[in-house]
């Protein structure tokens, strides 16, 4: 089996077509690469390559069709790189003996006839051409495959149910696990994420937070707690509610504009070791449990056996009260101690303060920790754009579009 190297076009519907039926034989290919560390730092790096073909068209007119199709493809590649829209152009490569082909996106290119093309080659319709291009400095599988997912609802393809909380007593997970064996290769890979609103309610989903965890020991196979229940913290009043995660939320009241310490939650040794010094976004589920007149939030963290503060967040102003999940900032867990293990438990203290000298109340169901190895916020610009029941949001990283 010979090496095969072809130029293909993929339109916005995901349909792949060959650029031209070249009737060509690959003579040589100047395969180039970059150091893995370079590509990891910048996935937009490119390489410039050259391939030589012998083309045997049926006629001179057929040769013209071939060369024009290739030139048009390279112009489309340049347009896609500049404008972010239109068909994508790929080099598709299958070495001799390989079970599958791989592809790399082209961003520019050109085609040249051999210097003897108008002499004996022209007469015999056996013409040498040189095709040059600039492409991404990495390869990806040319065929898509759905990744197997795992959580409390099962394992496999076809999608799994996720909730906006990780509720151990009801077995409702806010995550899915992807086994390492399900994704091959050595570089971060793009994906197509499909999120379907399966909650039958008149009000659609307005905001979705999605975090990608790569380096922490999370999910069902690790110890990284994704959620701390507010009722397990100090102070306040625990209130039973069927609508709350684990059946309870917690309510705190205070007065005045001064900073008020309201609760302390424990980050266990297992959680600290599993987090591995990575960064997480803190979300608090608040809306629907009473008034939210606290205007600002601040966290402090310190080792359980010492009073010294290891980390203190800036004051974060809460969002509009209709947002059920409030974004309260970003934290490194444990702070400044990447890769350390055997750590003592840490305390996470929450402070609040209002803007006016009146009575305040804040009700919190839980604090969720969203990993930031990869992160997305999907937010409807208005109620007209909500993700309604039985509709699907598609974040297409493969073809780079929503």
Question: What can you see in these coordinates?
Answer:
With 402 residues, this protein is mainly beta. Helix content is 10%, strand content 39%. The chain contains four helices and 26 strands. The chain has helices at residues 36-41, 60-83, 120-124, 269-275; strands at residues 4-10, 16-18, 24-29, 46-55, 88-94, 102-113, 127-136, 140-141, 149-151, 154-156, 192-196, 207-212, 227-229, 237-240, 248-255, 260-267, 278-285, 296-303, 311-312, 316-317, 325-333, 346-353, 359-364, 366-371, 374-379, 392-396. A hairpin with a 7-residue loop joins strand 5 (88-94) and strand 6 (102-113). The mean pLDDT is 86.
Termini gap: 39 Å
How many strand units?
26
SSE arrangement, N to C: EEEHEHEEHEEEEEEEEEEHEEEEEEEEEE
Radius of gyration: 28 Å
Counted by DSSP, the helix tally is: 4
Q: Could you say which overall geometry the principal axes of the C-alpha atoms support?
A: elongated
Average pLDDT rating: 86
- What percent strand? 35-45%
Q: Summarize the biggest pleated sheet.
A: 8 strands, antiparallel
Structural class category: mainly beta
Q: Share of helix among residues? A: 10-25%
Unreliable stretches (pLDDT < 50, length at least 5) are none
Provide key terms for this protein.
402 residues, 26 strands, elongated, eight-stranded antiparallel beta sheet
